[in-house]
Amino acid sequence: MVQRVTYRRRKSFATKSNVVRKVRTPGGKLTLQYVGKQAKRTGCGESGCDRPLSGIKAHRPQELKRISKRQKTVSRPYGGAKCGKCVRTRIIRAFLIEEQKIVKKVLKAQTAEQPKK
Predict the structure, then answer these.
(1) What's the CA gap between 110 and 90, in Å, rounded?
(2) How far apart are the first and last CA of the chain?
(3) CB of 39 within 8 A of CB of 79?
(4) Whether residue 100 sits in one domain with residue 76
(5) In a shared domain, residues 43 and 91
(6) CA nearest 77: which of 63, 61, 94?
(7) In angstroms, rounded to a whole number, what is the distance separating the alpha carbons of residues 88 and 29?
(8) Quick one: 5 and 16 in the same domain?
(9) Is 32 in a helix, a strand, or coil?
(10) Are residues 84 and 107 in the same domain?
(11) Distance separating alpha carbons of residues 57 and 64, to the nearest angstrom
C-alpha cells in the first residue's frame, strides 16, 4: 500500500504557490517538499523591447532583495536595466544628434561668411 502524505502548510488547494513533490527522508519517511515558483528573467526596461537581460540570472522578487548588487547588474552603462542592443542604439543616437548640431553650426557659419564676399 502507498504511504499517504498531507500538505504541511495551511492551504489545501492545488494552486501555483502550493506545488509539492514527494521526497523520502533519510529515516525512510515519505514527506512533501514545497517547490518554489518558477522565476522569470529580468527584462529590458526600454519601451517596446522585452528581451531578457544577458548575464543576470532569474530570481523571484524576494530573492532579488537578498542577493548582492554584483549579481543584479552587468558592468556597462544601464547594466541591469537595458539590454546591450538598446544601449548601443542610445549611444549611436546621441552621437548622431551631436554631429547634426555641429553640421548645423558649420553651415550657419558658412552662410554668414558668403554675403561679405
Answers:
(1) 31
(2) 107
(3) no
(4) yes
(5) yes
(6) 94
(7) 56
(8) yes
(9) strand
(10) yes
(11) 10
Domain that holds residue 101: 38-112
What tens digit of pLDDT does each residue of 68-104 get?
999 999 999 999 999 999 999 999 999 999 999 999 9
CB 113 within 8 A of CB 105: no
Exposure string (b/e) for 67-105, b if CB count within 10 Å is 16 or more? eeeeebbeeeebbeebbbebbeeeeeeeeeeeeeeeeee
Single-letter amino acid, residue 43 = G
Q: What pLDDT, on a 0 to 100 scale, did the predictor assign at position 3?
A: 87
Backbone CA torsion sign across 4, 9, 11, 17 = negative
pLDDT, tens only, 6-36: 999 999 999 999 999 999 999 999 999 999 9
Q: What is the predicted pLDDT for the residue at 44?
A: 95
Q: Where are the alpha helices (DSSP H) in the chain?
A: 61-66, 69-72, 84-113
Fill in the DSSP letter of residue 18: G
The contacts of residue 42 (CB under 8 Å, 6+ apart) are 52, 53, 56, 58, 72, 80
Pair (27, 73) in one structural domain: no
